[in-house]
Task: structure prediction
Amino acid sequence: MHKPLSFFCVMFASALSAGCSSTDLNPFSSDPVELGSTTANLPPSNPLNVAPYVLRGQVRQLGDNIVLIPCASKTPVKLAIPDALRQRVIDFPTDEKYTELSGFMTHGEASPAVPSRFAFAVSGLNLITGTASECKNTNPRLVAGGHQPYWYSRVSDGTVVLRHADSFDRKEKIEISALADDKQFFKTQDFSLSVDAGICQDGISDKVFGWTATLILDGEEYQGCATQPNSEPDSEWVGRYKAVIEESGDTLTTEMTLLPDHSVVTRYVRKYQPETSEKGIWQVTANGKVEVIVPYSDDTPFDSKRTFRRGNDKLVADKEELNGQVLSLGSGGLNMVRVTTSPMTL
Result:
């Protein structure tokens, strides 16, 4: 069975060395073609080019590596994690560790346990708990709360909703806000909410939060913990994109879906061939491009990264980084036309 190695490459699943060269690219070729012998010089990773986001899933230890298995995938993502946070994750007293980590994908080193050339560079903790079912829950809002007395708040759409003790929910418009990487502040007519980066535990559950929260209401100060959004349903990038190429009676259809939790699914449908798919991660760079990264796995025995630029209502990629080599996607590139802003059902 043929399995797409990239949009312009077709490979046998058992032939890991097969791929495509930077010339004579033919999406309808029935034969695998050899990778070039010269490895391209890859640009150094620049963390400032990528906006941090939250990945969530189960954290496990594989050999000397700490990996995250995303909720929407079975593919381990290697973590480049600070020592203090690494130890906190390892020492968490349950085998099942649902974890939300902020960071970005970057180049890493392959290892026997995790052969991918990419790693998730962790910049902070959002949440860790032994409740595995948390994977079913998405949270598109900043949420904060505390106990003794009980209070709860959420921030979204320019408002803060507050529930305090036994009172009804209060929804007030944000009048003043200040946002930074490690601190956020929101002021409404009657109260203020501050959220700061720092380890926090609520005292009534096993949860460890990556943010502390302070509510000031009626001159009183209340402490608590907070979590940042773990999904981005309103992101301008989220949606389904499609490309169709026809040649000599053959058709290759590619569908790429960018999901709110930064997972991506790319499906390939070729005439008279079984459908195949790849799962990976997408992230936005500071220059307004989106990177789609597929880590090495049993299902996709290769690493790939495509960088798309926006062109009207489509995404266009000119090159692909494949197993450490930079390859051209042809003179016209890969043109993915947006067909819906709502992710398809997986």
